[in-house]
Specification:
- This protein has one domain: Growth Hormone, Chain: A (Up-down Bundle).
- It has ten helices and no strands.
- It is globular.
- The N and C termini lie far apart (43 Å).
């Protein structure tokens, strides 16, 4: 395919094979961060007397509970994505999200910290189950020339959703009835994501006869060994893990950094998140142009170097 004939990545948004999937994952990423940031801001600015733990410890506990399901269940989730129709799996995950956000609504209104911590774990589990289906869906519906653009659009959508979710969570918590409004917003976004998921086209399982290994420890070890046996896969795994570790480290600390170092309020924390997320979204879109329609892994070390250099000051 020539340079002039490269597919337009934005055209995918008008096609059923991509659009419902895009908006489903967009809603999930947005809701994850709307809930997490609203809860984090509540802890940082509103939760005096609700818990004996320090603000810094609570913020890190929220992040840890969200990440824990990824550590425990990612390998098992990958098996589920191989065995079952990914469209059906994504719809069931969105149903789970509605239940979790209903609990979160009650937790916000009642200012019940244990319930909200349980929701942080639940939303981590929701994303853990959704992730393998999300990443395996695109290669089954896009051709090779479209795949870089489709991945870029998905990554861009993820971080725009993170931006909007964080902004909404932070701004909603600045108003008088913020916890109620944040909880209602979480439920509404979950319902919209569930609706979008109804239109994702069927995606044939790649290994329907697979026997699920329900032991997350042994399955995780098996997957690590498989990755270690292929240098390209291992390097990709490490690069993606580093990017997400780096991003979570910054996103988690922004509210406390804005309050204790910059002396700002919730709006300052939201501004930091906005600038951070916009940069990632622009970089994701630029990948398709820089790769010129090819699967180009050479961009990864350049991105890692840039992240390191620009992160030194903070």
């Amino acid at each position: 395919m020539t340079h002039s004939a490269r597919p337009n990545q934005f055209a995918l948004l008008g096609q059923r094979r991509f659009a419902p999937f895009f908006w489903t994952q967009f809603g999930g990423a947005g809701n994850d961060n709307l809930f997490k940031f609203a809860f984090t801001v509540m802890v940082a600015y509103r939760a005096a007397g609700l818990t004996a733990l320090s603000t810094g410890l609570m913020v890190n506990l929220i992040a840890a509970l969200y990440i824990l399901p990824f550590v425990l269940f990612s390998a098992t989730s990958g098996q589920l994505a191989d065995k079952y129709d990914k469209a059906v799996l994504m719809r069931r995950v969105k149903t789970l999200e509605i239940a979790i956000m209903a609990l979160a609504l009650w937790g916000f209104v009642a200012a019940n910290i244990p319930a909200l911590l349980a929701c942080a774990f639940g939303m981590g589990l929701h994303s853990t189950l959704f992730g393998p289906a999300k990443y395996a869906y695109l290669p089954q519906h896009l051709n090779t020339a479209e795949l870089t653009g489709g991945n870029g659009m998905t990554e861009m959508g993820t971080f725009v959703a993170i931006l909007l979710g964080n902004l909404a969570g932070g701004l909603l918590m600045t108003v008088e009835r913020g916890p109620l409004l944040a909880g209602l917003a979480c439920v509404a976004v979950a319902l919209l994501g569930w609706t979008a998921a109804r239109f994702i086209p069927a995606t044939a399982p790649v290994e329907p006869q697979l026997r699920i290994n329900w032991n997350p420890l042994t399955e995780t070890v098996r997957n690590i060994r498989l990755a270690a046996a292929d240098r390209t896969v291992l390097q990709a795994l490490l690069a993606i893990s580093w990017m997400w570790f780096y991003g979570v480290a910054f996103l988690t600390q922004f509210p406390v950094f804005a309050r204790d170092v910059l002396g700002g309020n919730e709006a300052v924390a939201s501004l930091l998140l906005a600038v951070f997320s916009i940069g990632i979204a622009l970089g994701s879109l630029a990948c398709e142009w820089l790769a010129r329609g090819r699967m180009e892994i050479g961009l990864v070390p350049l991105g890692a170097i840039g992240m390191t250099l620009f992160g030194v000051d903070l």
